[in-house]
Amino acid sequence: MLFNSVTFILLHIIVLVAYWSAPRQGLRRLCLSVGSLFFYGWYYWPGLFILAASILFNYVVAQQIEKRHSRQWLTLAVAANLLGLSYFKYSHFLTEVVVDLMHVFGSELAVPVRPHWLPLGISFFTFQIIAYLVDVYRGKVKSEKDFFTFVCFVSFYGQLVAGPIVRSHEFIPQLKVKRAFSWQNLQLGFFYLIAGLMLKTTVADTLAQFVDYGFTHIAEYKTLMAWLTVYAFSFQILCDFWGYSTIAVGLAHMYGIRLPINFNSPYTASSLKDFWRQWHITLSSWLRDYLYIPLGGNRNAPNRNLFITMALGGLWHGAHWKFLIWGSLHGLWLGLERRVALLPGLSRKVPRLMNGIKAVLVFHGVTLLWVFFRAESFRNAMDVFKALLLPPYGIDSKSPDTLVSLLVLFLIFGKWLSRYLIDDRFLKLSLKKQLAFSLALILLVLAYSQARLDFIYFVF
Amino acid sequence: MKSRKPVIYFVVLLAVFASLELAVRRYEQSLLSVQNKVLLKKQMVLLRRPTHVLFLGTSRTQDGVEPRELMKSMARIDPDAEDVEIFNAAATASNMDSLKHFVENILCKEGLKLLVIEVSDPQMMNGPLASELDEASAPKHTEAHLQKCLRDNSYLVRHRKLFRLDSFRRIPTLWMSDFSVGTELFRRALLKDMVEKIDRDALAQEAGTGRWKPEAIPPADKLSELTLSEPQIKAVQVYTEIVAVARRSHVDVLFMIPPLRGEWAAKEFDPHHQVFYQTLSFETGRPVLTTAARELNPRFFRDDSHLNKMGRTLWSDQLAGAIVHTLQKREGE
Q1: Does residue B333 surpass a pLDDT of 80?
Q2: Is B147 close to A6, i.e. CB distance below 8 A?
Q3: How far apart, in whole angstroms, are the C-alpha atoms of residue B221 and residue B204?
Q4: Which of A1, A261, A295, B210 has the most CB within a 10 Å radius?
Q5: At B202, which CATH number?
Q6: In the beta sheet, which residues pair with residue B217?
Q7: B161 at the A interface (CB within 8 A)?
Q8: Could you tell me which residue, B187 or A396, shows the higher pLDDT?
Q9: Is the complex ipTM more than 0.95?
Q10: Do A154 and A217 belong together in one domain?
Q11: Which residues neighbour A16 within 8 Å (Cβ) at sequence distance 6 or greater?
């Protein structure tokens, strides 16, 4: 079920009260496990079987990997997880590729059409589990013996469907310690929750209306509106995903659990490398630790490793050529950045100015690459690029004032908000400020929430 | 000792929202009006001093009639009309339902003598604005029930649009009801409109062409065999009801097609449109004023269906004769 639904809020309160009412930590974990599976099943119950199968399989296999310290067991387990992910997420795409290739070579292949169904959050929990299995094999963590602790780790409803991707050594120990209920954690969690809801329902969903129209009617737009549309998408995807991650962190806070932050002002990054350190931080670090470094990292052909990592990272976002192109272009850019420094002399002389200029350039580069991410098809992406970059240039007669004011307001307000969405900085504010900010956020959610759009990352 | 700050935080938040809930319950009617353009205009009409002539319609009329210019021109034609108070109650995206609701609710207005109602495709075809439709987009099943339950029990949730910037923007407008003549321009045109100077010579020259003089479409003496579209049938029905209700309150009605150009004007020659206007005039017994049969100067338009400041001034001046005539006729009766 969606975080921005009344049903979710109500059920969350019920599970939260049950959790803190339980006298023993084991019982609390049971509450959280049952609650999480219930939330997952509520959205689409057949998905529950996939999740349950994954939990059972990996619970048993992790113990075998630890017991035997066997690379074969690890390979088998990782392959099984990737196979599951591939079947649900990529089989449709791969079939299409094979059929198209056969067509190129003059042969027609009739493939029965399988209904395309993607279990919610499969990309997230699969990556989380793979990291756990590898860590168990490396001896970094012990395999989890308590079944419900493992269920909570894989299926915690706060972050199951769209991250952040948590590491077992960060999450599991927090489930083991019995904590007393804390009003401070509840307050902090509540602030994160309303801030995330505001980002999602007020900013992202409002921008989505402009973006959806813009990408489908790009032929009607002149240069100005085309640029505003892609800017709007840049901020829509940021607020959508940042909003989700923030809600997830907030929900966890309410249980006394700390989740890693996933975003840290990514559009202020002065290089693409920095952008990936500030955007979807938990995915970037996962790709670094479990793909880039095993491929050879910086030691052996780093540019090739970067390209492969980013291309696969792109495919992780969705089974479509556009994601592969998007990821590959990021990989190429990162490789280029390693070799070429932009005006190094000037960067040393006026570092702040150059950082500002670089940040603007990186933001625009990232924004242009988002076009592949958002476009309905490759052709649609090309149409958008045409409207953005090719003559005739012009200013549309349509009024962009709502969109412009929304973007400007977000630039001001978002910068402020990001300062207080790190650790427990919000708690350090005076009570008056806490109340004023919270009231403003709640009223924004109340007044503007669209309450009908899914989170973009739900489909990953 | 543990900090009591978080507990105070939640208690104060609850208290603030409880107070807001009570305030919204207490002032529901007034607050409702700032959430919707049509309701705002209705509330402005009810709050302001006695008003004799009201203009109703969509943005075409909202941007197309300047009551101050109209009042001046009317006073020139008939010195007795000097005290006639006019208000432009047209609002963007007005539709047939809102028009009917509006008329039914303002007929009690002190001094009201004449309604000048726009007849146009947008007026007939407009549905409720997407931003006004919360309920329709709600998901089904449990979520829908819970949302309904919340709306039914919390005025704060039911009137949540009250906290949108648009609503706040309308509060001063409501306070200024008594001084306002009701012309509310699109925000994007406001600055341009304020600095734009009126070239009186050009106005006089354009008026001299006679193209802007509104003429009444003659009612059909026999109804055409051409069938009307569904929205047109509904429109005739609603306009007839409006005229009947207005007559019961001794208020006269004039129909008006605001000046158009290009494709919009061309549409007016469509036989279905002509039959519709004739039918409307026949069914209601009221004239439909138009300039649509003539090619109008683009200098006076913001776009093909909206006048600019010069156009508004000119059209208001040209309408004066018809309104004075209607008011005089009404007095005579």
Answers
A1: no
A2: yes
A3: 37
A4: A1
A5: 3.40.50.1110
A6: B288
A7: yes
A8: A396
A9: no
A10: no
A11: A254, A255
